[in-house]
Amino acid sequence: MLNLKELNLIVGNKSFDLLLGEVENIFFDCKRQPYGLKDDKTKLELAKDVVSFANAEGGYIFIGFSTKRSPKHLGDEVDKMRCFERAMVDVKQYENVIKDWIYPELEKVEVNWICVKDKKGIGLIQIPNQKLTRKPFLVKREIIDDKKRSEIIFGLVERRRDVSSPRAIEEIHVLMRDGMNYSNCLENKLDKIEQMLESLTASRLKVRKNEGELQGEITGRIKNILSLEDLAKERTFLLVAYPKKEQCELKTVFSDREGSLKRKLEDPFRLRPGGWNLWMRERAKIIEGKYLRIGFEGLEIIDLYRDGCLIFCTLANDNFLCWASRPNSLCINPIALVESVYHYMHFYGEVMRDFDLAPEEYEVKIILNNMHLDEQKIYLLPGSLRRHVRSSEKKEAPKDNFEKRVYFRKEDYDPAVVAFEVVKEIYLWFGIEDGDEKIPYMKKVNGKRCVDIDQIKEIK
């Protein structure tokens, strides 16, 4: 994934062909053609795109590049350079829209048209990293009514992964409310609250009453997360890990200190740029003093409970698990499946280490919902990604729903090994036998099969 330093070199050397094959990310976005700027709708689009980079770490908008979905990365891949004539970009008009539609005014934003060949070129908008003290930047629109009274409408847009995402009005209200309340409260109360939470979560092991009570509690939590945005009616993939017999509380699940479990959830480990991981570029929220919740656009949601239950829920469609599927079909992308499961199990290792006295036994529940939704059956293929597929190789989901549990112990925990066991159960359910590399991105180490993280790291 290109970073700002590499993008600066590409722009400085005008070597724009190096963008081809790269995946859009938090630092750059591509537009197939210039913004029209003939009406408020297109002006708003420009303002939203620019302000999303300003609220992140800065970046570039390249105009004159088409993109396509990449089956190897969770993001769109730059496909072609489509140069156009200079007259199609009125630099002054772009600058005026950026100035008039964004508050406060951005510093040192540059709009250019750069000739590439034969009097044709590409458009470029460079948004430098803005001062933290000036953030957040807002998209604003002044409306004047019939009585010549002026009103301002505004919105907040941020860059997340490879998209510019507007904040919902409810989120803006919470941010404003919390900021105003913080200004009116004594700051030292925060430290006292944090100390109280840590003392409450540092309790010792307790034995659960029975298996039925445990499963009933887990089922309620799953229903809770599926109630969001009508996820129960969508194709979903869930992983739910939790201590099996003993019950204990996490130490730093509600702490905002550096190195806390909350901070690790907000900035989790990632195998490679542009892959399927748990990073959502969001702050986790404490819900009712019971658990943390972090989510990305209704696409991925994670709930982390203080007793060590970790629920990961994502869409099992062409927005995530079936990314870059062929038109009118839903095939599980093997990279998306294996890589997301591995990242989940890797983070659960962090959860286990946060216990004051960690339980000995755990289980992870695998759930696939609505695999036959709208009479379209989701399917899986043996092996890794391929271009040509025989219809006989397609293995359709045998039922609408799937649920399976995998057990593991603290003493021999290896995220790559447990991730393999989870993926294997999914392949077996689809009717794909375990063997002859039919389950991809795997290897054997010391007699145990596991996810081959080196093979995933090498995916370009």
How would you concisely characterize the structure shown here?
The chain is of the alpha+beta class and 460 residues long.
Question: Topology of this structure?
Answer:
Layout: H1 4-13, E1 28-31, H2 40-54, E2 59-63, E3 65-69, E4 76-81, H3 91-101, E5 102-103, E6 110-117, E7 120-127, E8 138-144, E9 150-160, E10 163-166, H4 169-184, H5 188-201, E11 206-207, H6 211-226, E12 236-243, E13 246-247, H7 261-266, E14 285-287, E15 291-296, E16 300-305, E17 310-315, H8 334-353, E18 361-369, E19 379-380, E20 395-396, E21 402-409, H9 415-429, E22 442-445, E23 448-451, H10 453-457
Parallel strand pairs: 1-2
Antiparallel strand pairs: 2-7, 3-4, 5-8, 6-7, 8-9, 9-10, 11-13, 12-17, 12-18, 14-15, 15-16, 16-17, 18-21, 19-20, 22-23
Helix pairs in contact: 2-3, 8-9
| Side-by-side strand order of the widest sheet | 14-15-16-17-12-18-21
The stretches of 5 or more residues where confidence is low (pLDDT under 50) are none
Strand content: 25-35%
Query: Based on DSSP secondary structure assignment, what is the total number of beta strands?
Result: 23
The count of helical stretches stands at 10
Q: Label the structural class.
A: alpha+beta
CA gyration radius, whole angstroms: 24 Å
Mean pLDDT: 87
Percent range for helical residues? 25-40%
Q: Biggest β-sheet, characterized? A: 7 strands, antiparallel
**Distance N terminus to C terminus?**
9 Å
Shape: globular
The figure for the number of domains is 2
